[in-house]
Amino acid sequence: MKFVGKGFGASADTMGEVVFQTGMTGYQEILSDPSYCDQMIVLTNPLIGNYGVNREDFETTVPMAKALIVKEACDTPSNFRSTATLDATLTRFGIPGLSDIDTRMLTRHLRAQGVMRGVLIDGELTWDEVQSRFDELSPNDQVARVSTKRTYVSTGKGPRIALIDFGAKLGIMRELMKRDCEVIVFPHDATSEEVLRYEPDGIMLSNGPGDPKDVPTAIPLIQQLMPTTPMFGICLGHQLIALANGANTFKLPFGHRGANHPVLELETGAVTITSQNHGYAVEESSLLDTALIVTHRAVNDGTIEGVKHLHHPTFSVQYHPEAAPGPFDANDLFDRFMQLVQENKQKVGI
Amino acid sequence: MPKRPDIQKILVIGSGPIVIGQAAEFDYAGTQACLALKEEGYEVILVNSNPATIMTDPTTADRVYIEPLEPEFVERIIRQERPDALLATLGGQTGLNLVFELDKRGVLRDCGVELLGTNLAAIVQAEDREQFRNLMFELGHGVPESEIVHTLESAWGFAERIGYPIIIRPAYTLGGTGGGIAHDRESFEQIVESGLKASPVTQVLLEKSIAGMKEVEFEVMRDSSDQAIIVCAMENFDPVGVHTGDSIVFAPTQTLSDRDYQMLRSVSLDIIRALGIEGGCNIQFALDPDSFTYYVIEVNPRVSRSSALASKATGYPIAKLAAKVAVGYKLSELKNPVTETSYASFEPALDYVVAKIPRFAFDKFESADRRLGTQMKATGEVMAIGRNLEEALLKAVRSLELGMEELYVPQLEQLNTDQLEHGLVHPTDERLFMVYEALRRGYTVEALHQLTKIDRFYLHKLNHIWQAEQQLANEPLTSERLLDVKRLGFSDVAIARILASDVETIRSQRHGWNIRPVYKMVDTCAAEFASETPYFYGTYEVENEAMKTERPSILVLGSGPIRIGQGVEFDYATVHSIQTIRDAGYEAIIINNNPETVSTDFSISDRLYFEPLTTEDVLEVIDNEKPLGVIVQFGGQTAINLAASLEANGVKILGTTLEDIDRAEDRKAFEATLSAERLAQPPGKTATNVEEAVACANDLGYPVLVRPSYVLGGRAMEIVYEQSELERYMRNAVIASKDRPVLIDRYLTGIEIEVDAICDGTDVYIPGIMEHIERAGVHSGDSIAVYPPQRLSDALKQKVVDYTIKLAKAFRIKGLLNIQFVYADDLYVIEVNPRASRTVPFISKVTGLPVARIATQTILGTSLKELGLGTGIHPESDSISVKVPVFSFAKLKEVDPSLGPEMKSTGEVMATDRTLEKALYKGLVAAGMNIALKGNVLMTIADHDKEEAVALAKRFDRLGFRLMATSGTADTLEAEQMRVRRVGKIQESGETMLSVIERGEVDLIINTTSRDALVTKDGFLIRRTAAEQGTLCLTSLDTVEALLQVIESLSFQTVSIPAFTKFGVMV
């Protein structure tokens, strides 16, 4: 299928997995969320760029998305914090944008056929040429590309949290710092020895791009840290906890990407509206022989949205309690994590 | 929690008559709620006084009571029905106030009636200014700083602390009388003083003005398990300062970053949880455009106009789900009725832009004050959907039916710079168009922002439209250019104007280039889930989702925005027609643009196209759907007006043909038909200048009824009693010319009679005859109608029937017709409307005949005989029903509340009882009249009414009322041995008419008008003061007569025993 529109932002040919996002606000956060690494993002909200781009709402320093596909890109933004247009921002980061697209048609196509690869070019290509571009597939090293290369520390007076960066959104850091944590950020391939050397009070597994099975180094790390230290996984971190416990993950047909996804907490029956961005999910049947139990489920399709460990202080959610973009309704999960950290500290007598 | 099994019977309270601020949205909400409760197996009892609603159809609830929404009546119903529970949050402020009354009276406790949904304490907490402020302080949310003061001295402290501007709101005055915004010391002193004077408790609220901030609204839902979601957030084009009902609104919010949005979203959830609302609620915010500072302006703890708009804007049926939440369901247990795959506990995602523009009645009320402020003035609204903001806005503009299809208004070119800038700074209904005019004159976005405080984002969008218009005008027309402006929402009419071409040329060029709209679905989820919702909007993009089905279809045109003269009655008939078409096995398609109504509920039709009702938009839908034909006779004048252009483009009009519609609407053809049938109409002539007019009137004899030939619906129609008045009318009120003659008819002061009838081409069935209380000359929509007629002899009724049959056949009606007669010395035909009328819901309800359904069946080819009806009149019912008009004068400053040939009412109520007096009593009470059984009656009577008025005055005198009058009338009354308290004219010193009204000493004002300039001015002042004071003011002696009958029937006779005759003791 071919869509013709107007280019904006950087003028570069590109390719990637085409996914759609239904949030009505938050394009700046979406664009800069490292989990979108190598993806071309279709925004279903037709007017993008209305409130410009500001200095504060980036979720990473260098956005890694391949392209932004919109119905209309606003070049006359209006908001008190706006310092740049969307066009200028995309140009700055070398990301091409495509506007004047029937994004609803494209979204319906993706919903029906599942997410798929796409090529964005300035000009014409034959289908054979498109195919050959697809063959030059980028390697599955997205996590390695978006993760920090070396360990660094952000000081704080509260608990010491080891944040394993698989492509962490700054929002996770913000939430931990809001709770006075000292945060030590580790590269995705850190070993348990490296992490434990810092004597962390809790382990935070971040979100990140791609297929969780492409991050094999995380499995032993999680397995070794889980028994001793409270652990909280978000999104990719959640999927990795599942894999580390012997469960399986699978690719969803078109993923969950938006800011309006209801999630049911099984224990309380409470439903929260969550921010989501994931193309993979934990396979229900694969949990059978593991020590994980399901704690949260998507109201719409029933897929797993959260698990916890039966014996270890480990829990994780598929969605984004740090919001940015999206609702803060699940923000208390960070408080629960803090509580778990406190309880564990008392238990081990620190 | 699933639904509650411990309750069986639920009483639902409606919102009563349509007034400004409380309109058709409550029919939509109430109907949805009742049907939702029935769907759950509950027995639903409904009380509402408004007959013109689908809600009050016997199919909506198990039992429907059309009774006054007053505690005494509702209490009776509660005692009679003994419901287990009551649902009041769907009946607007009226519903809530009624429940407070019932609670205060102890009725709910006494009868063991549980209030469903939000409890009373929560409602009070949301509505009581002080309690609400305290709650916001507790929660840490900003509210504009305010203080209650009783003296000017104590007000200064606040002013010094807060600074100007300050809003001054006097306590307990209707419509904000005496209040205002003070910009400096001087105006502050003046307004506080006048406010204190206006307040009966000498109290004003001073409030920091937040005018100019962004206004943002959140529609929130919560269930009893504390789950809460946002259904929709909307952003106003007009900054804070203009009532949100009078503001142009866009959804979703456009200029809020995720951080801004999530901040207000979290606050909204916090508030709905703190209040403990179970159901829907609306929260209005003011957001500082330059910081994260926000203020909570108001919370409506119930469904509202905004929630109806949000439902239509998102597809999420708030009222339906609110009703289900009220009976115990959790949101996560309820399926989203749009997708039927996802659940109700999810927040709709929009992939389009929605624009709402309010519709005002200022085209009708030329004298009205058009300035917009904190008091709502709009009678209705339109909504439009597009894939960009320009498209949504321009579609909404042409849905307004203001006579133009674009932002350019030629008359505004006449304004000088001062006038234009004044209009930009002080918002009126025309501001949007003034901004466009300013752009045309070269104002920059920045300059306009400084003047209007409208967010630059929106001004840039308007500027984009202007840039596109210039490009279109100055560059050669290519298919790319045309597609470009079509994508921006330009209508063919506008393009033709810009290119100095004609609309047919543009349309065929556009079709030649194959530039056609596609239709996209409103599905609540931005296409994330497959949906079957038959709810579409048109746009210029690639993929069309509204594929024609195999089933034969019929298109019904709706009636557009609610305005005076074309109200919810037409939506009622439209909905009935759609339902009948579906029952007959066709696919029923509707086009309409009014977000408040039942007809735009996507579950009503097989396919809903939310589109403007213009020739272009309707033709494109027809091209997409290829219906068998189009029904125009239920959508009021809006739909009828489209008939000619549709037929000219090859569309089949079902029912009465275009030719016959024209014969009824064209005066010459109408007269010809009438004289061919030997049916009389009031003698009349046409005049093209003053001299001709005077000659005509002399021939006919005064009084005469004059009106221009080129306007419809009673506009600029007047009754003229003498030559000087006629000359003034011809000189000032109309522009007469050869092409536009003035029609002059003899004014017959007889009984006005109205008939609705159905004709299938062979038979004519008359559901009933209605008689008007007010004589001809008062617009039929403003008259009290009585069914069955009380003053007509059987012979006259038969004559009405005969005339109706003749007229229906003569005009070859297929479907509905409405005829107005006047009976003076003989029966005269005033007008024949070849369409559904305002009285269709009333006559349907009083006769039990679903008139619009029967009419639709005849249009679809079923004969009246096959329906078991044939020719004749439906047997009269034993009980007597009245339809009483309801006005919104308190909200429309500068509008003269006197009755005349121009319609002024916004709504109606119905009442039924065994005698006329009882029915009238209920009707008047339901219409909001305070019927005093004693007190003071102030009479100011025009000379030509004096004789008649004296008789009425005597009856008041006999009932013990005290009469008040100025010298002229007082002399007349005293001459008839009545005691009169003399009051001065307005200009006189001492006690004047105005001062006694203002002091609340008058219980009833009887004021008839004449055209004497001074009298007119005084009369106007009296009527306006009465409207603002809430004092009953009657301007038709017939209404007074009806009121007297009611009062007399409520009063025992108190007459002294007769003196003894000379055969007894000495006298």
From TrEMBL, chain B:
- Going by the entry's taxonomy, the superkingdom of the source organism is recorded as Bacteria
Which SUPFAM superfamilies does the protein's record reference?
Answer: Carbamoyl phosphate synthetase, large subunit connection domain, Glutathione synthetase ATP-binding domain-like, Methylglyoxal synthase-like, PreATP-grasp domain
Q: Which residues bind Mg(2+) 1?
A: 284, 298
What positions does the entry give for ATP 1 binding?
129, 169, 175-176, 208, 210, 215, 241-243, 284, 298
Q: Which reaction(s) does the protein catalyse, per the Swiss-Prot or TrEMBL entry? A: hydrogencarbonate + NH4(+) + 2 ATP = carbamoyl phosphate + 2 ADP + phosphate + 2 H(+); hydrogencarbonate + L-glutamine + 2 ATP + H2O = carbamoyl phosphate + L-glutamate + 2 ADP + phosphate + 2 H(+)
Return the InterPro entries for the record: ATP-grasp, ATP_grasp_subdomain_1, CarbamoylP_synth_lsu_oligo_sf, CPAse_ATP-bd, CPSase_dom, CPSase_lsu, CPSase_lsu_oligo, CPSase_preATP-grasp
What residues bind Mg(2+) 4, as annotated?
831, 833
Which keywords has UniProt assigned to this entry? Answer: Amino-acid biosynthesis, Arginine biosynthesis, ATP-binding, Ligase, Magnesium, Manganese, Metal-binding, Nucleotide-binding, Pyrimidine biosynthesis, Repeat
Q: Tell me what gene encodes this.
A: carB
Chain sites annotated for binding Mg(2+) 3? 820, 831
Tell me the protein family, please: Belongs to the CarB family.
Q: Binding positions for Mn(2+) 4?
A: 831, 833
Name of the featured protein: Carbamoyl phosphate synthase large chain
